[in-house]
C-alpha cells in the first residue's frame, strides 16, 4: 500500500478529517491519474473545475507572457496541492501545469471539494493557508524583482529552497532533485547564464555543491552572509 502521508499537507495534519478508513474509501471514489514527464495536466484557459493532490512526482506551475516568454510560478512535490483557485469561482485556468517527472495525482472535482469543505472546518483553514502563503510568496518575489539585483535573487532563492525543501545532514543541508539552471532562472526572473555564474561563484567559495540530483549547502549561515 502506498504511503498515505500525501494527506499531511503544508504542515497541516488533516488525519482528523481523513481517517485511514476514509482515505481508503476516497481512493475508490476519487480519480487517480499518472502523467509522464513533460505531459501537460492543464493549459492556460482550460476549464477550472478540479483540484489536484500530488501523490508522488513533481509539477511545475507556470504561465506564458508576451512573445511566449515563460514564467515559472512554483515547483511542487509530493503532498502538495494545486488548482485551488477553482474553489473561489475562477472558471478558466490562469496558468499551466506540467509534470516534471512521472507523477501521480489524486483529482477531486470542485463540487466534491465544496462538499468536503462544508463538512470539515479544518479543511477550509488548510486551503486558506495555502492561498495566503502563495499570495505572500508572489508578493515577496515581486519586491525582490523590483528592489534586488540578479545575484541577490538567486542566492535568496537557494536559501528559501533549503529552508523549505532541504534536509539537514550534520552541519550541511541537502536538497534532493535540484532543478535545472534554466528553471532557477525562470523562478528568479534572471538569465540561465546569470544563474550558472552565481552558482559557480558560490561553489568556488566552497559554500555549495550541486549536480542534477541534488544541491548541497555546506554552511547555510555563511551563504546568508552573501546577501
Mind explaining what this structure looks like?
It is a single chain. With 227 residues, the protein is an alpha+beta fold. Helix content is 39%, strand content 26%. It contains 7 helices and 14 strands. It has a 4-stranded antiparallel beta sheet with strand order 3-10-5-8. A hairpin with a 5-residue loop joins strand 6 (59-64) and strand 7. Helix 2 packs across helix 3. The longest helix has 27 residues, at 121-147. The protein starts with 7 loop residues before the first strand and ends with a helix.
Concise description?
With 227 residues, this protein is an alpha+beta fold. It has helices spanning 20-29, 110-119, 121-147, 150-165, 181-188, 192-204, 220-224, and strands at 8-9, 12-13, 31-35, 40-42, 50-56, 59-64, 70-76, 81-82, 96-99, 103-109, 167-169, 172-176, 208-210, 214-217. The longest helix has 27 residues, at 121-147.
Amino acid at each position: 500500500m502506498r504511503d498515505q502521508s500525501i494527506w499531511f499537507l503544508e504542515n497541516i495534519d488533516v488525519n482528523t478529517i481523513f481517517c485511514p478508513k476514509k482515505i481508503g474509501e476516497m481512493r475508490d471514489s476519487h480519480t487517480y491519474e499518472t502523467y509522464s514527464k513533460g505531459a501537460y495536466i492543464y493549459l492556460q484557459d482550460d476549464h477550472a473545475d478540479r483540484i489536484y493532490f500530488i501523490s508522488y512526482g513533481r509539477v511545475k506551475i507556470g504561465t506564458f507572457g508576451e512573445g511566449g516568454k515563460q514564467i515559472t510560478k512554483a515547483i511542487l512535490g509530493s503532498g502538495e496541492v494545486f488548482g485551488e483557485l477553482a474553489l473561489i469561482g475562477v472558471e478558466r485556468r490562469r496558468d499551466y501545469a506540467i509534470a516534471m517527472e512521472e507523477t501521480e495525482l489524486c483529482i477531486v472535482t470542485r463540487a466534491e471539494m465544496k462538499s468536503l469543505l462544508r463538512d470539515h472546518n479544518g479543511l477550509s483553514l488548510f486551503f486558506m493557508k495555502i492561498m495566503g502563503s502563495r499570495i505572500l510568496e508572489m508578493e515577496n518575489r515581486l519586491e525582490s524583482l523590483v528592489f534586488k539585483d540578479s545575484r541577490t535573487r538567486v542566492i535568496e532563492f537557494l536559501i528559501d529552497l533549503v529552508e523549505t525543501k532541504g534536509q539537514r545532514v550534520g552541519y550541511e543541508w541537502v536538497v534532493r532533485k535540484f532543478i535545472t539552471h534554466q528553471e532557477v532562472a525562470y523562478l528568479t526572473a534572471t538569465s540561465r547564464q546569470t544563474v550558472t555564474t552565481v552558482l559557480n561563484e558560490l561553489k568556488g567559495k566552497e559554500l555549495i555543491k550541486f549536480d542534477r540530483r541534488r544541491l548541497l549547502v555546506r554552511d547555510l549561515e555563511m551563504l546568508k552572509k552573501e546577501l
